Pleckstrin homology domain containing, family H (With MyTH4 domain) member 1
Amino acid sequence: VNAWKRRWFILRNGEILYYKSPSDVIRKPQGQIELNSSCCIVRGEGAQTFQLITEKKTFYLTADSPNILEEWIRVLQNILK
């Protein structure tokens, strides 16, 4: 089982870029998640978790608070419409 790793996410032009920390955003991202019609969001069993499922990979994400989780899900659902 993999341990949770904190990442900093930026939503830009239909994709999510992720970095190790906020200070890393001036560098190349650690990875990116292309958001398209084949992506879907599934709420996790934890209060602040969800899965972002893409064609290539499933990302398991957790937010710092329930409010932040709801905001992420709302924004992602609007993009994936």
